[in-house]
Amino acid sequence: MRPFKVRLPDHPRCRCNSRAGVACKPRAVTAPQDWAKPEREAPSGSLKTSMTAPRPSRPSRTIGEPFEGTRLKAEVLALAKAHAGPKADLRPALVARLKQAMAEGRAEAERLLNADGSGRMCAIRLSALQDAVIAAAHEVATTVMYPIDNPSRAERMAVVAVGGYGRGMMAPGSDTDILFVLPYKQTAWGESVAEAMLYILWDLGLKVGHATRSVDECLRQARADVTIRTAILESRFLVGDKALFEDLEARFDKEVVEGTAAEFVAAKMAEREERLRRAGTSRYLVEPNVKESKGGLRDLHTLFWMAKYVYRVHSTDELVAKGVFTKEEARLFTRCEDFLWSVRCHLHFLTNRAEERLSFDVQREMAERLGYTSHPGQQDVERFMKHYFLVAKEVGDLTAILSAALEARHDKSVPGLKGMVARLRGAPKRVKLKESADFWIDNERLNVIDDEVFRRDPVNLIRLFAIADKRDVNFHPDALRLAARSLNLIDGKLRENPEANRLFLDVLCSKNAPEEVLRRMNETGVLGRFVPEFGKVVAMMQFNMYHHYTVDEHLLRCIGILSEIERKTNPENGLANDLMATIKPRHLLYVALLLHDIAKGRPEDHSIAGARICRKLCPRFGLSAAETETVAWLVEQHLVMSTVAQSRDLSDRKTIENFAAVVQNLDRMKMLTVLTTADIRAVGPGVWNGWKAQLLRTLYYETEPVLTGGFSEVDRGKRVQVAQAQLRHALADWTDEQFSTYAARHYPPYWLRVDLETKVRHARFILATEEAGKALATCAEIVAERGITVLTVLAPDHPKLLSVIAGACAAAGANIVDAQISTTTDGLALDTIAVRRAFDRDEDEERRAGRIRDAIEKALTGEVRLPEVMAKKLPKARRTFSVEPEVTVNNTWSNRHTVVEVSGIDRPGLLFELTNTLSRLNLNIASAHVATFGERAVDVFYVTDLMGAKITGAARQSTIRRALIGVFEGSFDEEEPPRRVVRV
Question: Where is this region: Disordered (predicted)?
Answer without folding.
Answer: 28-65
